Amino acid sequence: MVVGNMIHLRNVTRTYSSGSGLVRALDAVSLDIPAGEFVTISGPSGCGKSTLLNLLGGLDRPTSGEILVDGLPLHQADEKALTAYRRHTLGIVFQFFNLLPAMTVRENVELPLLLRGDPHKKAGLRVAEMLDVVGLSRRAHHFPHQLSGGEMQRTAIARALAGGPRLLLADEPTGNLDSANALNVCETLSKIASQKIAVLIIVTHSEPVAAMAPVRIQMLDGKILTHHNDRNPAR
Ligand code: ADP
Q1: Torsion angle of the four alpha carbons 32, 33, 39, 45, in this order, in degrees rounded to the nearest 10
Q2: Does the Cβ of 124 fall within 6 Å of ligand 1?
Q3: Distances in Å between the alpha carbon of 39 and those of 15, 34, 74, 114, 135?
Q4: Residue 197: band (very low, low, confident or very high) from pLDDT cuts 50, 70, 90
Q5: Per-residue pLDDT reduced to its tens digit, 168-178
Q6: Average pLDDT for residues 196-223, to the nearest whole number?
Q7: Which atom number of ligand 1 is nearest to the Cα of residue 26?
Q8: Pocket flag, ligand 1, residue 16 (CB < 6 Å)
Q9: Residue 222 Cα, ligand 1 centroid: separation in angstroms?
Q10: Residue among 215, 206, 211 nearest 181 (CA)
Q11: 218 pLDDT exceeds 70?
């Protein structure tokens, strides 16, 4: 493994059995991503994007191959290690925000911190800091139904960042937004990426969103079709 890589995949294959035989959702994928990198992954429906995200999120295991995140071998980690990984190393942003409707913005962002046992005061300070990062300090006491789609997604981004993840996964984060809201969510994600506090991986169908990142991966049929890196254009 190359020292310094936050994410390391070697020959990762995930097959599913379906009525008509075996589907290779991921087919011997190898990939290395250094700490703090900003990556977008795109490709047609069915090319394996969700399968890859689920593996990186520790929600699924490969059929074969190695997958290490921050040194943790996810392909062989037990449930306890995976739970700790999801609580401390990982943040996830979903297409449909997944906010709790009966909780305010502040409470939504705070909840995962309290669930993992952070003290109230520390959690409160962290939430205030994260709401500032996503530009929602003035909305702290609003409920999700009082927010625009972009504000809901920025709340979800603050929640995903609150635990101090080293890997932030965003699954079609603008897929449910109009263009104005998509733009402000993209600006927020770019700002976070520029701070290099976490590897940011965005899975997207949107070409403008895919183009934002210096590292752009396109997938097809379970494989990496192209891997552009503006920092290393020769690749
Ligand atoms: P994408 O996210 O790019 O749309 P997926 O990772 O969801 O692609 O799917 C990749 C391939 O694996 C597709 O052919 C899909 O039908 C298949 N697949 C995904 N999940 C399952 C499953 N649970 N059972 C059977 N086949 C699956």
Answers
A1: 30
A2: no
A3: 24, 10, 20, 30, 23
A4: confident
A5: 999 999 999 99
A6: 94
A7: 10
A8: yes
A9: 9
A10: 206
A11: yes
Spacing, Cα 227 to ligand 1 middle (Å)? 21
Dig out the tokens for 214 from the structure: 């210096």
Q: In this structure, is residue 5 part of a structural domain?
A: no
Tell me which of 1-10, 44-53, 64-73 is least confident.
1-10
- pLDDT tens digit sequence for 1-22: 445 699 999 999 999 998 889 9
Residue 65 has pLDDT above 50, yes or no: yes
Give me ligand 1 centre to Cα 50, in Å.
Answer: 7
The domain of 100 spans 36-61+78-229
Strand-pair partners of 58 = none
Residue 162 sits in a domain whose CATH number is: 3.40.50.300
In the block, residue with structure tokens 């005061």: 121
